[in-house]
Design brief:
The complex is a heterotetramer, with two copies of chain A (about 325 residues) and two copies of chain C (about 325 residues). Chain A is an alpha/beta fold and about 325 residues long. Helix content of chain A is about 45%, strand content about 10%. In chain A, helix 6 links the parallel strand 2 and strand 3. In chain C, helix 1 runs parallel beside helix 7 and helix 8 packs across helix 12. Classes of the chains: A alpha/beta (about 325), C alpha/beta (about 325). Chains C and D meet through helix 4, helix 6 and helix 10 of C and helix 4, helix 6 and helix 10 of D. The complex binds thiamine diphosphate (2 copies) and magnesium ion (2 copies).
Amino acid sequence: MSLTQEKCLKMYTDMWRIRLFEEEANRQTNLGNVVGTLHMYCGEEAVAVGVCANLRDDDYVLGTHRSHGHCIAKGAQSDKMMAELFGKATGTCRGKGGSMHVADFSLNMLGANGIVGAGIGPTTGTALASKIRGTDQVSVCFFGDGAAARGTFHEAIAMGSLWQLPVVYVCENNGYQQWVPRKNVAVVDSVADMAGSYSIPGVSVNGQDAIEVYEVIAEAVARARSGGGPSLIEARTYRFYGHSLGDEQQYRTEEEVEERKRNADPINILRDFMTERNWLTSADDDQVQQRAGDEITRAAKFAEESPWPEMGEVGTDVLFDAKEVA
Amino acid sequence: MSLTQEKCLKMYTDMWRIRLFEEEANRQTNLGNVVGTLHMYCGEEAVAVGVCANLRDDDYVLGTHRSHGHCIAKGAQSDKMMAELFGKATGTCRGKGGSMHVADFSLNMLGANGIVGAGIGPTTGTALASKIRGTDQVSVCFFGDGAAARGTFHEAIAMGSLWQLPVVYVCENNGYQQWVPRKNVAVVDSVADMAGSYSIPGVSVNGQDAIEVYEVIAEAVARARSGGGPSLIEARTYRFYGHSLGDEQQYRTEEEVEERKRNADPINILRDFMTERNWLTSADDDQVQQRAGDEITRAAKFAEESPWPEMGEVGTDVLFDAKEVA
Amino acid sequence: MTVMAFNEALREALHEEMARDESVFVMGEDVITHGGPYKVTDGVAEKFPGRIFETPIAEAGIVGLGVGAAMAGMNPVIEIMYLDFITCAMDEVVNQAAKMRYMTGGQASVPMVVRLPCGVGRLLAAQHSQIMESWFMHVPGLQVVVPSTPADGKGLLKTAIRSPDPVMFFEYKRTYTHKGEVPEGEYLIPFGKADVKREGEDVTVIAIGPMVQKSLEAAVLLEDEGYDIEIVDPRTLSPLDTETICESVRKTGRVVVCGEDSSFAGSVSEIAAMIAESCFSDLKAPIVRVGSPHVPMPFSAELVKHVVPEAANVVSAVNRVMS
Amino acid sequence: MTVMAFNEALREALHEEMARDESVFVMGEDVITHGGPYKVTDGVAEKFPGRIFETPIAEAGIVGLGVGAAMAGMNPVIEIMYLDFITCAMDEVVNQAAKMRYMTGGQASVPMVVRLPCGVGRLLAAQHSQIMESWFMHVPGLQVVVPSTPADGKGLLKTAIRSPDPVMFFEYKRTYTHKGEVPEGEYLIPFGKADVKREGEDVTVIAIGPMVQKSLEAAVLLEDEGYDIEIVDPRTLSPLDTETICESVRKTGRVVVCGEDSSFAGSVSEIAAMIAESCFSDLKAPIVRVGSPHVPMPFSAELVKHVVPEAANVVSAVNRVMS
Ligand SMILES: Cc1ncc(C[n+]2csc(CCOP(=O)(O)OP(=O)(O)O)c2C)c(N)n1
Ligand SMILES: Cc1ncc(C[n+]2csc(CCOP(=O)(O)OP(=O)(O)O)c2C)c(N)n1
Ligand SMILES: [Mg+2]
Ligand SMILES: [Mg+2]
């Protein structure tokens, strides 16, 4: 898919929608409306939008504990997502999953996941399903740099390669694994360098630049869709917030974070790109932000006004309810 | 350690001891004295002896389901091993382990293992112990090419590298994983090529040639012992028997096996090497075989005449018996 | 009805389901080469090309792929060569497959069958002889199925493959060669429905898997002692048919619960606890459990015979509840 | 005696044992940076440099290394950030650590402690709230320890670290901040010794982990109803102190078994089954279990409150066995 103004605008808009969604969720946490925890994606938005702009609705996406951005970029509704974070009955998962399990199966967004590295096998499995059925759906797996250490990475990618499955493995390397800098616990810097062990292409991109992500992923998706097998793409990125809410971030300096916000905010980088091409006026920009802001305000209102799940919900969805069978 | 005639003779002798031990165990299976199953090591002996000739008694070795050779090369007694295969009370594991769990902790041979790939983490752990204690013991892990697919390979080797532990990872690539040719299920040919993912040296050697194995391992052991961290060594080898007893071997031709036996028998290869150097006369050779044969005959007799474990053994060794505490 | 071995009955069920539904496929180690060690997947590669995948040795990967394929609407039937190796894929089974429907508020369905050859077979010691039914019973979202006869094997495997939720399907290795009559063609056994394998008046013996056969043998011996025992085979441990069990207990007032696995925190413990809670007033005697001692499986044949429970253990348990 | 929080008591035990024995070391994710999420390993890096290892995210690797280090004579104390992640290392726990001594005929010793923060804490849903005590009880070769107070936490962790065999050490996340008196210095609690946390005449309440505190609360409420309950805290589920439990049951004749985990095939089931087998003639009423319903942990606070058992559940169970 070639890069158009429209596509850029969509990516730009979605980055704002993600950013504002999370900032609102954070605010709602302080108000006590969102409980549990949030793994903020802010700063990494270019990866989600750059990847998902290459996908069709019927392509599969699986995420991580840090998946608000993946969900929104794949098309999930912010109001239902916010309601999920509140634990309300109107949430994407009817309040049963929360932030770490947001999913929208109608969009083949098969869910965030609370277990690091646990999505890599299942995404390879959705790709296997497409291969068996002979469809041209592509599967995309997001995972962190920490997840690349897990055995699931090793086992699943090898099978993706063995059967030449239509899957793109997207590692979001944000340089940290919870409270530990990657360099303290990893022996290779770039996760893309591990691709050789699986005989698949490995590419590292600047994950702050939506355009760069978009173009590299475009190639990987095209390869996957046409039967050329998997790719491993590392997007080097940075998270602006702590690992999860309440993180004191003793492992990095405020200066480091401020510097990244100043020089590597993916929203600014895409804005500059579009402005240079006259693809975005300042009025357009205002409108994008205004609309995204309104949407998120509505989402919070929707979540707040939504009912709690009923007590009986505790016992449903454990198994398929036989009564529902035709 | 430099290669001496004595060392060669030791390796040559141990290869015969392994070969005859297994052939006897096989015979005893047909007699109904050995039950369960055997994973025959015949054909791969050069790996075990080439590795262990570089080790001290206090160096750690962990094995696989196919570990008769590793045990003998590390110094385990063939009579107790045979008794273990019989399930007798005098066995290395008092009859509780059998062929897949032969171990001799007095030699720091910490055991064969029935779970593919399960020794890689623990061997990295024995190396961690040496590092913490500040000893210069080296740890060696044997594992098959099939094991390289497991997550444990990926997780443990990365930690071995991260902490620069004194460990040598020895992959015995015999081209098969139970009944499946490696090429059907693996996406890289040489396991050594995966070393890059862990920033450690990876070397592939001819596993039929004890000398080649010896020299490459000598370097890896020296590096490990002097604080230079781990290595991944792939020994390309071949098993002369089926995966385990009773294997019909539909997955390979008899010609293939015969050709390998003819051209790649590690015993012949080392014999030729020694003969060329006048390190082994034909009389020496006869003596080696004679002695090994006698030893194994005695081992079988010992096993046969040994008592069965008493019924009460069922319940011991589950936990350390508190009564034994001083 | 045809007489066939347990593994043949399973193979028949698998073939029938694969013919019926294109979304059923097979994955596992060595499943093509010899149809797996127990030949349950034999012939699949020839009859259903492209629907069987022989994998690297990577159980976490195998089950992980299965979860994804299932969420995408396929029906994977996975063979774990020995149950013991499922320990390498517990996250995939427990945190992924079992919880996916719940965590997504009902959006996900994981129609995956995990076949688990278990228990002693050839003597292969502690890492190749486990059972662990109670682990999976304890995980909400999983169904735990334990057929004891070829007919049950066929009927339950077909139901398992059609189930919209994950099934842990236990196949006792020692029973693969057991023969029995098996209904031809369409034959489905519902989950959560115990089967009274023998009617009797004096003692309820609840028997799991191979203990059904051993209890039947014990029943013959006990007849001579004048005891008429009823044998209830739960067939599925989760869901557990508490109704049929309690009905039998109400009749006899005496209970023996038999499994081949260690009883300590084992599947038999749940059944005993349930009865002690639900049928207390009907009980005339202690609830006695029969199972292995709480030890790893030893290798030596001389030791193994003191571990695996046999008909004699059932006999003495019945004597205990009758005394 | 000093008053301290549960996590502080554990930290004290760990520091004391590391000072006492050079072979004790710590391994886990994020154990240096903040002393782990619950600060149990706080200060170790400073006081015992070279004896704490912050790892990649690789639970199978972590426990695997622990097994090897332990076999080589070290005493690893491993933190699994959340119990749920132990699913990624079940082979290492179950097939390696637990069975090594047995399979090697007594040659191997695996003195490893695996610390398992478990249960609900902040609301993190199904993959961050599990307990699974019964899984590990069912594995011969493992010891399962569940402290319910800061003092027990200290005494049991010190014993665990000195044990020559692997210990699965359960730490309920919600109790980390609970305070209590803790003996200073050397304080060891033997395994297999239950503690009667309250004496009473009418009902034996066997309570695990946080249910001890909730049962104590229930006892106060039940006093008003005229019921005098005895609370037995097993402290170690394997080995299980059947003697102390049965002694109490013989006295009261009525039993409630309480755990926070799902009861179905849970730790409470073993205790109930044991009593139904060993103390039948002493029983005057059904054995009632208190636990979570058999569902994954939901996220919504509104749902969670219907899952986790509280003092009120103990009260109604006692009422049931008294009626
Ligand atoms: C198997 C497993 N181990 C540990 C954790 C706890 N944990 C949650 S997120 C995280 C860090 C993940 O790092 P990375 O994969 O780089 O993703 P990031 O948070 O940086 O996006 C950890 C250790 C977990 N959820 N699952
Ligand atoms: C985790 C696990 N999965 C499967 C098996 C069954 N199994 C035993 S040996 C073997 C093949 C191992 O192949 P490889 O590692 O190449 O060793 P080789 O037998 O060739 O020496 C398999 C699949 C096992 N023991 N453990
Ligand atoms: Mg990261
Ligand atoms: Mg091999």
